[in-house]
Amino acid sequence: MAILAGGCFWCTEADFDKVPGVLSTTSGYTGGKTANPSYAEVSSHTTGHAEAVRIVFDPKQISYPQLLAIYWRSIDPTVRDRQFCDIGTPYRTAIFATSAQQLQQAQASLAELQTTKPFAEPIQTQIQMAQDFYPAEPEHQNYHLVNPVRYEFYRKSCGRDARLAQLWGTPAAR
Fold it and tell me: What is the pLDDT of residue 117?
């Protein structure tokens, strides 16, 4: 299992749903202090939680480091407490390691990124041990499938794919 915060969880979930070896994704909240938060509470910027996605994957088909490589290319790691049009701590980027091995692999992936793709700005993505993960409300699950027109409008109007293309050439999973 992997837990990744990449800004809006709708987009992170959509990106990882397309990855071979990913068995399921769940949008939710983690990294804060409030138990069982609601979307409204997290959006109020008072819980400390980030929007995140819990990813269940088959390690025989895709490894955790491979998931991280996709993750880096699906975010702008150079901004703090925002992604694209979403601003505030709920939209920060973070890798929430579920084991000591994942923590080491996440730190190694960051070091590799800093070596192979140096940005003018420092990388702001946090790497920390996972805390409790709280699934988001049903209307936020599989949003890209349930509300495809609204989702695509949101993604495009936020400039997500345009910025990712600027940073990486092409987005990792689209």
Answer: 84
Strands 50-57 and 82-83 turn out to be: unpaired
Whole-model pTM?
0.95
CATH code at 2-168: 3.30.1060.10
- Number of CB atoms found within 10 A of residue 108's CB: 12
Domain ranges of the chain: 2-168
Query: Cβ distance 89 to 33 under 8 Å?
Result: no
Task: Please state, in angstroms and rounded to a whole number, the distance separating the CA atoms of residues 118 and 139.
Answer: 38
Residues identified as active-site: 8
What is the pLDDT confidence band of residue 171, given thresholds at 50, 70 and 90? Answer: low
- Edge-to-edge strand ranges of the sheet holding 2-6: 126-129, 93-97, 2-6, 50-57, 22-30, 133-135
In order of 59, 107, 124, 139, the CA distances from 20 in angstroms are 11, 24, 28, 25
C-alpha 156/C-alpha 174 separation (Å) is 12
Tens digits of residue pLDDT in 48-77: 999 999 999 999 999 999 999 999 999 999
